[in-house]
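In keeping with the milestone schedule agreed at the kick-off meeting, the structural modelling team has produced records for the first pair of proteins. Each record is given below as a sequence line and a structure-token line. The laboratory manager (R.T.) confirmed that both were archived under the project's standard naming scheme.
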Amino acid sequence: MAGFGHGTRRYPRSRGRTWSRTGPDRATLGIIGAICAIAGFFTLGIILGPVAMACGWLSMGRTWSTARPLPALIALVLGTIDTLLAILWLAGTTTPGQGFL
């Protein structure tokens, strides 16, 4: 039957060879990243900040050229701020003297 227009290479990107759809989609990653970024301001900023940045970056599709969804951009920006504040706080506690407070 393969010779009568029903070739085996008709769909080169068959269902078994495409990207797995079992993981979280981009909108979910953006929302998770935004929640992690906001929670990072209150607790564990050194951990939740980079998690928020990673979720935001993956939610944007790892590129700046396309239209960016708002939760992904919020997650990336707030995660960056959160990480920088956590690093400054850690640097302030390790120096002798008063630190930043």
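The second protein of the pair:
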Amino acid sequence: MQSHDARLFLRALVPTLVVGALAVVVSALVAGGKGAIGAVFGVVLVLFVMGVSLVVLQQTARKYPGLFQMMGLMLYAVQILFVAVFLMAFKDTSLFDTKAFAFTLLASTLVWIAAQARAYMKAKILYVDPDAAEAKRAETAGSAT
């Protein structure tokens, strides 16, 4: 992971963790221990799904830039399916409070997306690698003479 990739990841991770911690506290106050457990499951699910997707998308952009957009759309579909399968598997659970889980899942997802969008807008990532462009220019000039 390059340094700007790590910065983008951290800029999405930190606000999500803050909102997750607040959700755990609020859920514990409102719904007790099961509410706190539900909130923890919601935050962990969001961090896992969004974090893995971000890392996979960054690796794809680096290795196969032509597949970047298609991979982004595919990862979006996989995220939705993964969360849907998780929701179906635990819809009637008594392990945790499902309302606290759902609200935390929603809040954490929205915060992750907003923080990630803000991080990308603030990032100063070059669209063209100047070193590679210069090397290609020198190679072209060298073969022309």
